[in-house]
Amino acid sequence: MSSPEVSILMAVYNRLDLTKRCLETLERSMEGIVYEVLIVDDVSTDGTRDFLKTLGAPYRVFLNEKKGNFAINNNLAAREARAERLLFLNNDTELAPGWYEPMREGLARFPDAGFMGNLQTNPSTGRYDHMGVVFAPWLTPAHYGQHYARVPAWLKNGYTSWSAVTAACCLTYRDTFWAAGGFDEAYVNGCEDIDLCLRMHQQGRRHYVANESELIHHKGASPGRKTFNDVNLARLKATWADYIRREFVAKDARLFAKTYLRKTLVYPWKSNLGKAWACVLILAGLSRPGRRG
């Protein structure tokens, strides 16, 4: 059997319907590419485990006996992976031909690459959800481009560098992943990807998005996905506040402000008017958060 060029790592918990759809679209989109898929089931109760037991090559299945989390399960898969490229992929994604190749080419193009991400749309809103990650003046990571109906002209081709990317779909080299320590397993289904992006950044790595790679992401579809959001964010800020403020806030301020105001226009009931006003001041040049000396 040929060695795979990429190991696709997937943690699943229930939502068998989405897992089946993801794997169907994955198989159609990866024709001609030698790959393996490592799936870690986190004690599903909806028939997922029985389905996974029916899968043969290129699938390798691991069935947890006790509950883990995103970080634990993906670290397990990464330890078992055989390829030098690791691609982390949520089971609530849908893929079309041509999504993988721009990510692979970008990872090879940029010697300093940590993670290579892509554009993602949310079918529940019909809008984009992720074009890259930026940091708010209050240190919270945010998806740039969230709620955009179209991709801005400056992002339609090539590659863009970002402060971080989401692990819903991201590609890296095995050595890069483990040199930064893998995912911190103390995070419970949230912020572990941002934390790892920051550790890679400390090591001189930079994160990119392949703007010609795009997929559908049924965001937050796994049961219990958001249960620990507040705890995870508090841990991220406690660990990284000074670093985020020093390295990212000033350069991300305008991009964050544009995204937050777009959210305010589309979903005003989900926005904080004080934060929206702070974003207006940033775009007007009357506030410069994180500006150095």
UniProtKB/TrEMBL annotation:
Gene3D superfamilies: Spore Coat Polysaccharide Biosynthesis Protein SpsA, Chain A
Keyword Transferase: yes
Start and end residues of each Glycosyltransferase 2-like domain: 7-128
Record has rRNA-binding as a keyword: no
Keyword terms: Transferase
InterPro entries given in the database record: Glyco_trans_2-like (IPR001173), Nucleotide-diphossugar_trans (IPR029044)
Superkingdom: Bacteria
UniProt GO molecular function: transferase activity
PANTHER family referenced in this protein's UniProt entry, alphabetically: RHAMNOSYLTRANSFERASE WBBL (PTHR43179:SF7)
Name of the featured protein: Glycosyltransferase family 2 protein
